[in-house]
Amino acid sequence: MTNSAENLVRNITQLTSFPDIAVRISEMVSDQNSGAAEIGALIEPDPALNAALLRIANSATYSVGGTISNVERAVTVVGLREVRDLAFAICVSETFKGISNELITVEDFWKHSLFCAVASQILGRRAQVCAGESLFTAGLLHDIGHLVMFNQAPELSSDALVLSLEENDGLSPYLSERKIFGFDHMAVGAELARQWRLPNILRECIGFHHDPFASDTASDAALVVHVANSLAVLAELDSQNFGDAPPIEERALENLGIKPSVVWDVIAESRDSVDELLRVFVH
To answer: What pLDDT does 132 receive?
Structure first.
C-alpha cells in the first residue's frame, strides 16, 4: 500500500530497525552525569561509529590542528549533542545500505546530503542559530524520505521524477510527488523520524526543508536547511545561477540575517569537507 506516508514508513521499519546504540547515546547525552568519557566508551567498540566519528573529528569541518586518534577526544571536539545526532545519521546510513533502490546511486544521494549538511552547519554558524549543533545532521537527513519512497514505490517515484522534470525542471520534486502520491518525501522523512524517535528539531527540518514557512514555528534551523538544500544543488552543479536550484524563500535569508552574496562563500567553504566526509557514508 502506498496511500500514505505512514504506510511506506511502516513497511520500511518492518525490513529494518533502528540500532539501539543510537538511542543509548541519545539517553546518555541527556544525562548530566554522562560525559565524553562515558559516551566515548560506548562508541569505541562499534566499528562503524568509531571510524566515522574519528574521520569527522579530523575533517576540515572540525579541524583543530593535529590528528585526533582518541574517541573520547573526538567526542569533546565534535560536541556531545552533535555526536548524538551524528550517531543517528551514521546509523541511518548503515541501516539503508541493505535497502534496494534503483532511482539514485548511494554516492549521489549522500553527496547531496553531505553538501546540505556542511552548508547547514556553516550557515548556522554565520547566522548564530542556537540549534547549530544539530544542523549538520538535519542537513544530512533532510532527504531521507526519498530513500523510503524509492524503495517502497519505485514506479510511482519514477513517475514523480518525470513529472517534476516536465513541470518545473526537477527543482521542486515535492510538488510532483504530491500529485502522484498525495504526499511528498518531506512527509515521509518526518514520519520516519517520528517512528525512529529522532529529536524534534530534526523532524521539523526534514519535514519542511522545501517549504519552511508551512511549519507552525518556521524555526531558524528549518530555514537554514531550506537554504542549504538549494546551495547543495548549486555546489553539485558548480553553478552560480540561483535558477538552477530549488527556489529559496527570500524571507528565509532575511530572517536569518544572511545576505545573498554570502552564499557563494558558504558553497566554497563546504567543498573543503564534503569529499572527505563522503568516504564516511560511502565505503
So the answer is: 58
Cite the DSSP H helix spans in the chain: 5-15, 20-30, 36-43, 47-57, 71-78, 80-96, 106-127, 132-141, 144-152, 154-168, 173-180, 185-195, 200-207, 220-237, 250-256, 263-281
Mean pLDDT of the chain: 85
Name the phi and psi angles at 212, rounded to 5.
-65, -30
pLDDT at residue 198 above 60? yes
What pLDDT is recorded for position 1? Answer: 46
Residue 187 CB contacts under 8 Å (≥ 6 apart), including other chains: 5, 145, 207
Domain ranges of the chain: 12-99, 100-283
The whole-number average pLDDT for the span 110-128 is 91
What gap in Å lies between CA 234 and CA 110, rounded to an integer?
15
DSSP secondary structure letters along 110-178: HHHHHHHHHHHHHHHHHHT-TTHHHHHHHHHHTTHHHHHHHHH-HHHHHHHHHHHHHHHTTS-HHHHHH
Give the phi and the psi of residue 215 in degrees, each rounded to 5.
-75, 150
Tell me, what's the pLDDT at 218?
A: 82
CATH class of 100-283: mainly alpha
pTM of the model: 0.84
CB count in 10 Å sphere of residue 176: 21
